[in-house]
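Attaching the record inline, Q. Sequence:
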Amino acid sequence: MTEQRAISVMVVDDHPMWRDGVARDLAEHGFDVRASAPDADSAVRIAKTVAPEVVLMDLNLGETSGVEATRQITAALPSTRVLVLSASGEHSDVLEAVKAGASGYLVKSASAPELVDAVRRTAAGDPVFTAGLAGLVLGEYRRMADAPAADGDPPPRLTERETDVLRHVAKGMTARQIAEKLVISHRTVENHVQSTLRKLQLHNRVELARYAIEHGLDRE
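Structure, as predicted:
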């Protein structure tokens, strides 16, 4: 059997013991821990060099916040996903992180198995949130979608199957759940998701869910 490729990660936190502990736990679970960083500026600089698949990002990093680091990393490295790992569960922090490009948000009270699973799911492209926070994010997107919209260019045309997949993404379903629902393969779902992301010029499933909600697909 072919050995599974290790997911590359980077850990950003201003507390050395916490940072080193998370990096050690992930390494013990088979992740390729490429780097760590103690602050936002070094996180952005190092991320551009090592290009990890997933960055575990704390928010409270001193002078420059983890939100700004998330914004810069996702802008410079579209294929890198940021999973926030923060002590704060404040709704404003969650929304700011997601708006900056974070793919998910986990509070530090999460268990080691929850963290490992969250990193794997983030690498696979799934939005991952501590219980209760996903509903907050989707609720905010619905509120934004209900606001008056300015006229703009018409949206790109999606195929019927891409629209089906997008509709289920908006409902918070994972790729595997969508595959079971539509009776297609997991790989086919991923192909449709990636195609839709390219057409809509979006970066991750969180942005994709926002687009779908803004266009009312979650209510169909």
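The mean pLDDT is 82. Residues 176 and 186 are 6 Å apart (CA to CA).

More tomorrow.
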